[in-house]
Design brief:
Blueprint: H1 2-22, E1 29-31, H2 72-75, E2 82-83, E3 115-119, E4 123-130, E5 139-145, E6 170-175, E7 179-184, E8 194-195, H3 204-207, E9 208-212, E10 223-230, E11 250-256, E12 268-270, H4 280-284, E13 286-287, E14 294-296, E15 301-302, E16 313-316, E17 322-330, E18 333-338, E19 348-351, E20 357-361, E21 379-390, E22 393-398, E23 407-408, E24 419-424, E25 430-435, E26 444-452, E27 458-459, E28 461-462, E29 465-466, E30 469-474, E31 477-481, E32 491-498, E33 512-514, E34 529-531, E35 542-547, E36 555-561, E37 564-572, E38 578-582, E39 593-600, E40 607-608, E41 612-613, E42 625-626, E43 637-643, E44 650-656, E45 675-676, E46 682-691, E47 696-702, E48 716-717
Parallel strand pairs: 14-22
Antiparallel strand pairs: 1-9, 2-3, 3-4, 4-10, 5-6, 5-11, 6-7, 7-8, 9-10, 11-12, 13-14, 15-16, 16-20, 17-18, 17-21, 19-20, 21-22, 21-23, 24-25, 25-31, 26-27, 26-30, 26-32, 28-29, 30-31, 32-33, 34-35, 35-38, 36-37, 36-39, 39-40, 39-41, 42-43, 43-46, 44-45, 44-47, 47-48
Length: about 725
């Protein structure tokens, strides 16, 4: 009976509140201390602009005479809130726990947006658009990325990513009826992290207001929950985490059915335009910004590029309002070659079409000449950003990623077979070797270039035999003959060939090494380099080396991968016993074979290290979740289900008498069926035997090529309340 009256009281309170607010003007503040100079700067009791600033206004509040597509309750908001980009349009009635179209259901405006942000230079202001309102206590969370790094993979992976938090540094949560809490959650999953002060520093009645919005999702009024945090409250975050009014950030918004923080909370209600609880989809779709939040533009796509072309072309899904910038990269040097801001003055023209637009770098001569003067082997890529002006509103889209469509310039569209130097001609008078196939022009003469395998520098004079050199190809054999008895002296060598049509080969592999007493070189053996790392993983960013038997004698060393020389060359000072290659820009694959080659100062004979094979890091599968608790007749639970991020992985079940107790042998499944995580991240299985009442159920998961996970941190009990 007591519960009945409690429910009746809550219902009556909500009924009276909604009847009151339904009768009021959109924009009216109906809860929170007012005047509030931050959330209601003119202290008129409305979150809308004053009538004098709304053309045609006849009453206070948001105007009702504009088309819904203009979203007048944002266009004419007193505070210039900007949308927080979502992964997808905000749906309604998409909750976990909680009633649809109510106080935790984020609902969309005409552009599919439900949450907003404003930086006034002193405070961070947030707005949630909700399908209903109630006086009870709930949680409204903003998770913030401050360092531009997120996720476990890619160029911007966060080194502090953990299960439950792939890269957020700060959590801000409005706890209605209490206040606003702030947490430093850098590198913390679950409910870890450090609270900054307490909610008493930011009491609900002073730092938040509720008002009526103009939208009517679910055929009834929607509501704004606005709140703010001063930047001055964020100065003691610690742990290297900083957030000021000039810090570029990305954000994810969530609601909870309880007045608690979102991380580690099993009461998450609405994930804000995504089904991805990690937030990775949403965050990767934003460009870090200190001002208005920015959607990240889609990456433009490039077509193949050859030196004989007169232009560079590609496509974009951002339409004809996109701004395309084209870049070239040579080694570590990046230069913008076209688009706004390029020194070349060249522009990029977009031809509108639906849904994909074509863009063209405006150029009239071959790419190898004119203003661009590009070279074979240059890396070309592009970025997109968008400035769209529609009516009285301006929408900016941040700069896209740049690494999704890189192209290497070829001399022409061609394929040159792999070149190998087999040895020296009779009397050491030149080189000979083989090709992996027939070159573009077939048999005949090809222009050849010879390179020092250690320094990478082109060699134009060998014992008086001077460039240009010519390689004569017969079938898949070739020879470079030196005239007048000129001889190859000691050294390391690679060569390239170019056809008459401009098709250029890669450098020959492996490098060729010669140690003899011919004039021009030395036959003294060089100090043997070594790889001092016992293991090199695909994720390695440095490679450490040394010398067999002690110190260097002023050596030059170079990294070779899979018998191909790289651009990584180091000068090692005399008496040095170690050196280090920066390999952070390399993409290593398990099975790649590494070797270091070197030559001492004054010597010509090349020394080689032993090889080392790159291995993949041991990856442990992420812990799964067991859905529970299971409520039903005692000793009648036979079907268990749960979720996992490890799509396609195998799940193993265990039981325990207590939550922290030892786990028994894995549960058998009907017909020894394999439990597999489906494409949606769900799994379910029927066991051979019922599970005794009071048992706790745990799971492990293992994906292909990974080690088995730890036990799930939550369990589904076979009686109500066990979790």
């Amino acid at each position: 009976m007591k519960n009945f009256f409690r429910v009746l009281f809550i219902f009556c309170t909500y009924f009276l509140l909604t009847q009151t607010t339904n009768a009021q003007t959109a924009g009216l503040i109906y809860e929170g201390t007012d005047p509030n100079s931050v959330l209601d700067p003119n202290n008129d009791g409305y979150v809308s602009k004053p009538m004098s600033q709304i053309p045609g206004a006849v009453a206070a509040g948001f105007p009702t005479f504009y088309p819904a597509s203009l979203i007048p309750d944002i266009l004419y908001s007193e505070i210039a809130y900007a949308p927080i980009p979502k992964f997808a349009i905000e749906p309604i009635q998409d909750l976990g726990p909680g009633p649809d179209c109510f106080y935790t259901d984020m609902v969309p405006d005409a552009n599919g947006i439900s949450t907003y942000y404003h930086n006034d230079g002193t405070n961070m202001l947030f707005r949630f658009r909700l399908g209903g309102t109630a006086p009870n206590s709930k949680g409204y969370t903003v998770l913030i990325d401050t360092d531009g790094k997120f996720g476990r993979t890619g160029a911007n992976a966060d080194p502090n990513a953990v299960t439950g938090n792939l890269g957020f540094e700060i959590e801000i949560v409005l706890r209605t009826n209490f206040g606003i809490s702030i947490y430093n959650i850098d590198g913390e999953g679950g409910s870890g992290g450090t609270e900054i002060g307490t909610f008493n520093d930011r009491l609900y009645e002073n730092f938040a207001v509720k008002s009526l919005s103009l939208t009517t999702n679910c055929n009834d009024p929607d509501y704004f929950y606005d709140f703010y945090v001063p930047f001055s409250h964020l100065t003691a975050l610690g742990g290297g985490v900083t957030l000021t009014d000039t810090t570029p950030i990305r954000m994810l918004t969530l609601t909870s059915i309880n007045p608690k923080r979102a991380t580690g909370n099993n009461g998450l209600s609405d994930l804000g335009g995504t089904d991805d609880a990690t937030g990775e989809e949403t965050i990767n779709g934003q460009t870090p910004s200190a001002g208005d939040p920015l959607r990240k533009a889609a990456c433009p796509i490039l077509n193949s590029v050859a030196l004989t072309d007169t232009s560079i072309t590609g496509t974009t899904t951002e339409g004809d309002n996109a701004i395309i910038k084209v870049y070239k990269r040579v080694g570590a040097t990046v230069t913008q070659i076209a688009g706004p801001g390029a020194a070349s003055g060249l522009s990029v023209t977009i031809s509108s079409s639906t849904p994909t637009a074509t863009w063209t770098l405006d150029n009239t001569v071959a790419l190898s000449g004119g203003t661009l003067s590009l070279s074979s082997g240059d890396i070309i890529y592009a970025t997109a950003e968008v400035t769209t002006v529609s009516g009285t509103s301006t929408t900016l889209s941040g700069t896209s990623d740049s690494d999704c469509s890189e192209k290497t310039i070829t001399a022409s569209v061609c394929t040159f077979p792999v070149i190998t130097i087999s040895g020296l001609n009779s009397g050491d008078k030149g080189f000979n070797g083989i090709l992996s196939g027939v070159p573009p022009d077939g048999d005949g003469a090809y222009t050849a270039k010879i390179y020092n395998a250690i320094t990478g520098v082109e060699i134009t004079n060998i014992d008086g035999a001077v460039a240009p050199y010519s390689a004569t190809v017969t079938g898949t054999n070739w020879v470079i003959a030196f005239p007048g008895g000129k001889k190859v002296f000691s050294g390391g060598y690679t060569i390239t060939m170019e056809s008459a049509g401009g098709c250029v080969s890669a450098q020959s592999t492996p490098p060729f090494y010669e140690c003899n007493s011919n004039p021009g070189g030395s036959n003294t053996a060089s100090t043997v380099p070594t790889i001092t790392d016992g293991t090199v993983l695909t994720t390695a960013t440095v490679l450490n080396g040394g010398f067999f038997g002690g110190a260097s004698v002023a050596a030059k060393v170079r990294l070779v991968i899979n018998d191909a020389v790289t651009d990584l060359i180091l000068d090692v000072s005399p008496a040095a016993t170690s050196y280090q290659f920066d390999i952070s820009n390399l993409t290593l694959t398990a099975g790649d074979v590494l070797k270091i080659i070197g030559v001492d100062s004054g010597n010509s004979c090349v020394a080689q290290s032993a090889t080392l094979v790159v291995t993949a890091p041991v990856v442990q599968s992420i812990n799964p979740t067991v859905t529970g608790p299971y409520c039903g007749a005692l000793n009648s639970i036979t079907t268990i289900s749960g979720t996992s991020e490890e799509i396609g992985a195998t799940v193993t079940l265990y039981t325990a008498d207590t939550f922290g107790g030892s786990k028994s042998t894995s549960l058998a499944t009907t017909g020894d069926a394999t439990i597999t995580v489906d494409a949606n991240g769900d799994w379910s299985v029927t066991t051979d035997a019922v599970i005794n009442s009071g048992k706790f159920i745990f799971a492990k998961v293992q994906n292909t090529g990974e080690t088995i996970s730890d036990f799930s941190t939550q369990s589904g009990g076979s009686r109500c309340g066990n979790r």
